[in-house]
Amino acid sequence: MSLSFTVKTTIKASAETIYNAWLDSKEHSAMTGGVVTASSDVGGKYTAHNDYIGGENKELVANQKIVQTWRSTEFEEGEPDSLISVTFEEQDGKTTISLTHTDLPTHQAAVAMGWEDYYFTPIKEYFEA
Question: Tens digits of per-residue pLDDT, 32-75?
Fold first, then answer.
């Protein structure tokens, strides 16, 4: 059994700015407050929050969509990676980020709140400061 959910937020920044920051180690680290190694290439590996999370870029559509495998250090051996799909929709100088997380093991249910606390809240603060 696995979990799936979608979280959304709107940020006062362009889709291009947020998309590029998500795929840049320095910017991603700055906007989330954790150490990140990022890649802007399909097939490229990434880590986030001091190696707590890791995965691979599966699909990248410039300024519109990022699809990545996602796995935390709390996944049990043999559990498959989960998947995140992040879309960016810009309108009137603001961008709505929709993040859908699928195939997440049930023991990782707190991750839904983690996206709010460790991503969306600090990203908003970073771009709207």
Answer: 999 999 999 999 999 999 999 999 999 999 999 999 999 999 99
Structural domains of the chain in order of their starting residue, each with its CATH number = 2-128 (3.30.530.20)
The CA distances from residue 69 to 35, 73, 74, 84, in Å, are 18, 14, 15, 6
d(CA 19, CA 23): 7
**Which structure tokens are listed for 97?**
């980020």
Instruction: Count how many residues are written for the chain.
Output: 129
Tokens of 2: 């696995």
Helix residue ranges per DSSP H, the chain:
15-22, 25-32, 111-115, 121-128
Ordered DSSP codes for 94-126: EEEEEEEEEEEEGGGTTHHHHHIIIIIHHHHHH
- C-alpha to C-alpha distance for 63 and 76, rounded to whole angstroms: 33
Nearest Cα residue to 49 out of 28, 64, 75: 28
- Both tokens of 4, joined, read 């799936």
Q: What is the separation of C-alpha 54 from the centre of its chain, rounded to a whole number of angstroms? A: 11
